[in-house]
Amino acid sequence: MEAKTLFDKIWDAHVVKQVEGGPNVLYIDRHFIHEVTSPVAFLGLKTRGLKVFRPDQTTATPDHNVPTINQNMSIVDELSRNQVEMLKKNCEANGITHYGLGSDGHGVVHIIGPEMGLTQPGMTIVCGDSHTSTHGAFGAIAFGIGTSEVEMVLASQCIMQPKPKKMRITVEGQLGKGVTAKDIALYIISKISTSGGTGHFIEYAGSAITNLTMEGRMTLCNLSIESGARGGMIAPDETTISYVKGRKFAPQGEAWDKAEAYWKTLKSDEGAKFDTEYVFDAADIEPMITYGTNPGMGLGVSQSIPTGSELQGTDKTTFLKSLKYMDFNPGDAMKGKKVDYVFLGSCTNGRIEDFRAFAQFVKGKKKADDVTVWLVPGSKAVETQIISEGLDKIFTEAGMALRQPGCSACLAMNDDKIPEGKYAVSTSNRNFEGRQGPGARTLLASPLTAAAAAVTGVITDPREFL
To answer: In this protein, which residues make up the domain named Aconitase/3-isopropylmalate dehydratase large subunit alpha/beta/alpha (predicted)?
Structure first.
């Protein structure tokens, strides 16, 4: 038999039909929806007189537009309130499970799926959101789709997709002190660029990857899309299986035994062919920070911004335009640069492990006087765990306050916007112009690097405190 990649094994098992000379019709196991990309899809179904085909395989929660304070009160912004209310109405009308504001299951869509056990190895998973790639950490094929495709999945539980090329990125060795999964991701993107993964699905491999926790793997896969890839995935192992076992929607009894036996077969065969391969040494990675306006413009926190002397034409123009927006100069050192806001949260770094790391760093320290810190759990479950572990008390003693679950300052679609011209060290996933608010300047980093900035008020190497 021909050696197959992990991606091939899952994809091929879900192909319902091959359109001659065209895409595959792919069956979807789990469909996640939120309030932003679903209303038009539901309207399309209604217009065509169609029902949701398999409502039990769709899960909904509002996250992008929700406020992260006073969630017990009516949402002030009319558009946001309408979208959140419409999601609830559409789910009620179609028999879809909906985890609304304040409910135990509420949170960022890519965080509640794994923590409930809805996300499992071997699945195909889609959502009208680019960071659906997060779920690939479990050895699943997970990718974002557009609104018309959301309608297609609601109507048929299938989607038409061309089969992507395959890439393997291997990271071998032991990570250094203060280096996290977020730093691996930003390092990879800085090396292969924001278009390096275009047309591919990435499988991450190597000892540095298999030594990551599930939370770390989710962070890494979450950022796959920022290299231009369709998604990212990691072969399931004992770490994966231990994480899923016992969760609310995980298989039970004999069904668990059968599922576990199948999951253990989900790995790339020896000799399986990838279209593109990269190999990196974990020892070369240090805590990362971005300096520009795309996630590929990143470097080690101890390093200086490139001079751009080797760039020509549009590359040079883009580089200089980005630095002008950030009000940085070629050759500037990153350490010591002023910080105004710190944001811990999002589907990239809004899990309990991220808050534990941040809390451990700031324990016994005080927030810098002129820095605003937003600590936003990725779900109600994470919020509850933060409080039960007493992490909120550590934050309070450091002069910081815990907020309520939501996408928050990851994107300017809710009240948590960074003011124009201000610098925000953000644990989220995108640093585009205006992403966190009109004129906001975003520096992507790990929870540890964010914590270091929160207590010093400037870009700081977290290793100096560890």
So the answer is: 8-457
Residue 75 CA to residue 127 CA, distance in Å, equals: 24
CA 395 to chain centroid, in Å, comes to 24
User: Binding site annotation covers 158?
Assistant: no
Kindly state which CATH superfamily the domain 1-286 is placed in.
Aconitase, domain 3 (3.30.499.10)
- Within a 10 A sphere around the Cβ of 281, how many other Cβ atoms? 12
- Separation CA 166–CA 211 (nearest Å): 23
User: Could you tell me if 204 and 221 are in contact, meaning their C-beta atoms sit under 8 angstroms apart?
Assistant: yes
* Average predicted confidence (pLDDT) for the chain: 98
Average pLDDT over every residue of 298-303: 98
Side-chain half-sphere exposure of 81, counting CA atoms within 13 A: 8
pLDDT of residue 215: 98
Find the mean pLDDT for residues 279-303: 98
Q: pLDDT tens digits, residue range 236-269? A: 999 999 999 999 999 999 999 999 999 999 999 9
Distances (CA, A) of 289 to 15, 36, 298, 311: 40, 30, 5, 21
Is there a contact between 406 and 415 (Cβ–Cβ < 8 Å)? no
Instruction: Give CA–CA dist 442/141, Å, rounded.
Output: 30
Q: What pLDDT does residue 110 have?
A: 98
Question: Stretch 45-57: mean pLDDT, rounded?
Answer: 97
CA-CA distance, 54 to 88, in Å (whole number)? 17
Residue 165 near residue 275 (C-beta atoms within 8 A): yes
Cβ–Cβ < 8 Å for 107, 405 = yes
Nearest to 31 by CA among 119, 161, 130: 119
Q: Where in the sequence of the chain do the CATH 3.30.499.10 domains occur?
A: 1-286, 289-464
Category of 20 on φ-ψ map: left (φ > 0), alpha (ψ -120 to 50) or beta: beta
Q: Does 289-464 carry CATH code 1.10.10.10? A: no
Task: Name the helix (H) or strand (E) containing 143.
Answer: strand 141-144
On whether 410 is known to bind a ligand per the annotation, the reply is: yes
pTM here is: 0.98
